[in-house]
Specification:
about 475 residues, 5-stranded mixed β-sheet, binds adenosine monophosphate, Rossmann fold, 3 domains, 4-stranded parallel β-sheet, binds zinc ion, single chain, alpha/beta, about 15% strand
């Protein structure tokens, strides 16, 4: 089966091919650790997680690097405003970020390089760009990239750059698409930087944000690699500038596939830290939402379309999650986990699901196929009509789905044998209508950390979250 991905650089879907057979080198722009990441950020990170898991499921070996932006305009400003050393501030938010990743069942990257650990590579790249006339040093010791000298400048974002483009300079890391300008590679030291600076051939200063990602991606993945991802707001100026710096430095094509996910919205505005219209993972946890519900909400829309967030849609996420959990529980209850491997074959519906995923990760259509399959299998279960072959197929499809969407926490559904023994005793007590014994056993099970519910399918236990 062939995988097609929408490549922002080509402005169309393309057949995915790797540089080295069956090996994918993947770089994803990571968080700027001056505040908590919000669920808008996690829309992008979950899209990347699904992409990576899908590649792995399709037989690729993936080397994944995600950077941590721990020095830029925003981190420095925050550390000065709060009177906290930069390192303490960024370490705190980096840790919170990793905790959120774990909770969201996002697979770990192979490397999380920090910008502050990559200064020597950054200085090496800037020096080379100056010698190749792609960059110049200003009187104050700041270094700028000269966009007119890089012929491909503007191709990724589709910006018309011509001779009339002004050679004005921009010092800030973020700026508007309407004003493409020479951008900063190295910022000379200003009082407002406090104690944050490094020595360089151009005097003391610090790197611009864009060069950080060029240095870290090339440093960890090599001069040319397969996929580079981010949110759509990264296309300009960040990724446009990354291409200019990296290709100016190496003279080689930097990245084959550029993938960008659209924004998570609050009403009509992009969810963002600066607009203060964001939700954090901590907040959703406090309200008792589960990671699987948020993953559903973020994957029920296609990654290239805007998606609106609301607490109402989170509630729907909870209901959907419960439906999938019930389905997997029913399969486990029928012995799906102990089935002979020969019975684990994909049903036809799973092939359709895979076709949708191979079509630029069409998660909404893939989910629809999975849900109609659940309905069919649930009907067979209701009619007590699911034979071992059908059970094996259902379990195979569920496993493929869950390996990628990671919604159901199987550890929560699988119960230790000691609990199973107590459940068997309770079943006997209930058959004899000995409600007192039944309640006592329920309490014993609770003490062991599990809740029992009595459903039409029998007793169901769930691990109690602490
Ligand atoms: P930051 O921590 O601001 O550097 O952002 C980390 C990632 O989140 C980047 O790839 C952004 O493009 C992405 N991002 C920021 N806001 C949103 C949003 N509302 N929806 C989706 N992705 C976002
Ligand atoms: Zn980046």
């Amino acid at each position: 089966m062939s995988l097609y991905l929408y490549n922002t650089a080509a402005k169309k879907k393309q057949l995915f091919k790797t540089i080295k057979e069956k090996n994918v080198r993947l770089y994803t722009c990571g968080p700027t650790v001056y505040d908590y990441s919000h669920i808008g950020n996690f829309r992008t990170f979950i899209f990347q997680d699904v992409l990576k898991k899908w590649l792995i499921l399709s037989g690729y070996k993936v080397k994944h690097v995600m950077n941590i932006t721990d020095v830029d305009d925003k981190t420095i400003k925050r550390s000065i405003d709060e009177g906290i050393p930069l390192k303490d501030l960024t370490t705190y938010y980096e840790q919170r970020f990793f905790e959120d990743l774990d909770w969201l069942k996002i697979a770990k990257a192979d490397f999380y390089p920090r910008a502050t650990d990559s200064i020597s590579k950054i200085v090496e790249m800037i020096s080379a760009l100056i010698s190749k006339k792609y960059a110049y040093v200003e009187k104050d010791g700041s270094v700028y990239f000269k966009i007119k000298n890089f012929k491909k400048y503007g191709e990724l974002s589709g910006l018309p750059i011509n001779n009339s483009t002004k050679s004005a300079r921009v010092l800030t890391d973020e700026y508007d698409k309407d004003s493409p300008q020479d951008f900063v590679l190295w910022k000379s030291y200003k009082k407002s930087d406090g104690i944050t600076f490094w020595e360089s051939p151009w005097g003391k200063g610090r790197p611009g944000w864009h060069i950080e990602c060029s240095a870290m991606s090339i440093g960890y993945l090599g001069e040319s690699f397969d996929i580079h991802c981010g949110g759509v707001d990264n296309i300009f100026p960040h990724h446009e500038n990354e291409i200019a710096q990296s290709e100016g430095f190496t003279g080689k094509k930097f990245v084959n596939f550029w993938l960008h996910s659209e924004h998570l919205m609050m009403d009509k505005a992009k969810m963002s830290k600066s607009s203060k219209n964001f939700f954090t993972i901590e907040y959703l946890k406090e309200y008792g939402f589960k990671a699987g519900a948020l993953r559903y909400l973020l994957l029920c829309g296609h990654y290239r379309h805007k998606l609106k967030f609301s607490l109402k849609s989170m509630l729907k996420g909870n209901r959907v999650l419960e439906k999938i959990e019930n389905f997997s529980f029913r399969l486990i209850d029928k012995g799906a986990m102990g089935l002979d491997k020969k019975l684990l074959k994909e049903p036809e519906d799973c092939k359709i699901f895979k076709n949708h995923m191979n079509n630029d990760l069409d998660t909404p259509k893939a989910l629809a196929v999975f849900f109609s399959y659940i309905k069919k299998v649930n009907k067979s279960l209701d009619d007590n009509n699911l034979n071992k072959v059908a059970l094996g197929r259902a379990w195979t499809f569920f496993s493929i789905f869950n390996d990628v969407f990671s919604m159901v926490d199987l550890n929560e559904l699988i119960v230790p044998s000691s609990i199973n023994n107590l459940l068997a005793l309770r079943k006997k007590a209930r058959a004899k209508k000995d409600w007192k014994a039944s309640d006592e056993i329920r309490n014993l099970i609770k003490e062991e950390g599990y809740d029992v519910e009595d459903s039409v399918d029998g007793q169901r236990v769930k691990k109690i979250k602490i």
